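Q: Fold this one first, please.
A: Sequence and structure below.
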Amino acid sequence: MNRLYAVLYPLIWIFMRIFHPWKAEGRENVPEGAVVMCGNHTTLGDPIYVVCALGWRCQTRIIAKEELMKIPVLGFLLGKAGIIGIKRGKADVAAIKEAMRVLNGVEDIAICKLGEADVVRHVIVQRIIKAYEEDEHRRKSEEGKRK
């Protein structure tokens, strides 16, 4: 477990219990071991409630908006606690690759990369995938020229 996470979790849990009381329901439905959860939230506090509800032993890695990671002290602490920053509204390949790196080798989690040849359902879907692949190739080429 990440040391900073181990230090911050109890402090945040106590703060949330005192100032923002919550009740966790359905925890028995969360399997033991590694879990991948994806969910929308309506407030900044919702991810914190999920982290608190899952418990101390289940270290949670959150993908948060990149703007939070740029706040001087907060961004540093979030990064050290294992939070991954993502650029919202864009195809943030770097954040996805970081999440894949973290999950790589985790038992019972398989990561499947699909390319143009893998998608045969519809021509439009194939074109979309091809466009993303071409854009990624173009970006890599531009980055290579800058270096």
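Q: Good. Now the second chain.
A: Here it is, same layout.
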Amino acid sequence: MKYLEYEIDSQIYTSPIIETYFNNKKWGFFDIETTGLNHSRDRIILVGILVYENNRGILKQFLAESLKEEELVLEKLVKEIENLDIIVSFNGKSFDANFIDKRYKEAIEWPYHLDLYTIVKKFSPLSKKLKNLKQKTVEEYMGINNTRLDEISGKESIELYFNYIEDDDLDAMKKVLLHNEDDVKQLFKLLSVISKTDFKKALFSDGFPIYANKDLVLVTKDIKIDDKYIYINGRQKKEAISMVSFGDSETLTQYRFDKELKKFEIKIPISKTGDISILNLSNTGVDISKLSNYTNVKEEFMVLKIGNNIQYDGILYFVKLLIERIVQK
């Protein structure tokens, strides 16, 4: 197996919402190269992962020098993945991560997965504006495609890889590595595309992580609001915990955290006036002063929904504060 490492002289994209929910975390931006699309018969031949932490980015590439080295490549990649707080891909949930899960010998403890393709497709108007949502097309729209150096397609990358392992064609190897390197570097820059999306709605709908401590990460799965309750359900990662509350004299918040199933469920009563759904924050135990800057909060009350319009911003931060309070009790 060939291993290459490069330092990246670029700063990660940031914004107020990134700083609120992902500040000071260890990021990974990854892409894989395979011999085809069928995980049953095709192999992973090259992986690239850009690890970003403490304002420093390192791009690592693991290249199989024969098809038999796939397992070794995956072992190295999984070790990197399981040390991350966040992993970023472009269509990685349906392809890259799924392919890795099928090919690797053990279950993988994936960190929070931010798939930019999914975010763009579901929570932005770009699918109607652009001819397609391929990574290079979105790069062009964002004005960042001028730094690409590789000129080959994924299909050509496969042909060149076999030229390398069968004929020891070093020029072919360099082209394959460059193709993967550019995809990962461009993915790193493409994080800025979230500025073109309704990212708050995306986090509300598809889930977001709460880093309770270094040993416990909770990821919301669904947040639902009906006429009587707000429900928050999700998964526990790393060192899961078990605890139950049916509400007490200080809070009406009910919850169940299950260590074995690695799940959690939270239910809080709300009230409704006309078409406005309201949460009494004094029933939750959170520090209300930390929510005072949100426009949907007045004194101890938070407006959750007006008609069908959900107030995503304030709700997200409330959920973060609530889960941190429960876990740290």
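Q: Anything worth noting on the second one?
A: The chain has ten helices and 17 strands.
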